[in-house]
Amino acid sequence: MVYPALYNGPVNYFARLVRERQIVLEQFDNYGKQTYRNRCRIMGPNGIVTLSIPVKKNHGIKTPLKEIRVDYDTPWQKIHWRSLVASYASSPFFQYMMDDLAGFYTNRLVFLIDLNQMLLEAALRLLGQDTGVERSDSFSEISHSTDPRYFLHPKKDLAIVDPEFLPVPYHQVFSDRFGFQANLSILDLLFNEGPSAPALLRRSLRT
Q1: Is 159's pLDDT higher than 70?
Q2: Does 207 fall in a domain?
Q3: Residue 168 C-beta-side C-alpha neighbours within 13 Å
Q4: What is the pLDDT of residues 28-62, one digit of tens each?
């Protein structure tokens, strides 16, 4: 199965990835704005926070994801890491996992897909998954609505485009203020549930 290369992708993304032995990341799709390719959603003390990675892109020109470069003109790494600390320092498993992730917010990778793949592999390790990850060698068209590249999008109604996903509530930091918020970044699930996360992911799909 071919999957989009996402930045700290959402729970419904990883609910599928934990069932795979081998993952192929699409790298030839045209980069589009406001997708999970350069953004993720976490739960902060004031509600849901969207963390976005700025990228360098030629406006008006279609560019494949594999050529998209990360823009370091703004200190987004520092902003993202401070947001993660502010949001999850009090969560049960943040202290155990922070060292596995902190380097991604100091090292400067040139291409967005490199960062996304390395974060994906780190998340899979934290989930205890021995899953192979490779990249596509050509673009294959999206031919049906069950293709993950179609429905994994923050602007689409989850209940409509991903009816197989059944959000399983779990304890979240700040849930006393905002209640349970479904389908946040995998980091939210990892920091809050730790070793229980894989089982919860497997319960999150009808199939």
Answers
A1: no
A2: no
A3: 16
A4: 888 887 888 999 999 999 999 999 999 997 776 88
Q: Phi and psi of 50, rounded to 5°?
A: -100, 120
- Please give the DSSP secondary-structure letter assigned to residue 155: T
**Strand, coil or helix: what is 118?**
helix
Q: Give the strands of the sheet with 22-26, arranged side by side.
A: 2-4, 22-26, 132-135
% of the chain residues with pLDDT over 70: 88
H helices then E strands: how many in the chain? 9, 7
Give the chain's domain count.
1
* Residue 102: pLDDT band with limits 50, 70, 90: very high
Give the structural domain span for 116. 2-202
H or E element at residue 84: helix 76-88
pLDDT at 152: 61
Contacts of 69 (CB under 8 A, 6+ apart): 55, 56, 110, 111, 112
Q: Which residues contact 12 (CB under 8 A, 6 or more apart)?
A: 152, 158, 162, 165, 183, 204
First-to-last CA distance in the chain?
Answer: 15
Residues sharing a CB contact under 8 Å with residue 140, sequence separation 6 or more, in sequence order: 2, 26
Query: Which segment of 31-35, 114-118, 186-190 scores lowest on mean pLDDT?
Result: 31-35
Look at residue 159 and tell me if it is in a domain: yes
DSSP assignments along 11-43, one per residue: HHHHHHHTT-SEEEEE-SSBP-SSSTTSEEEEE
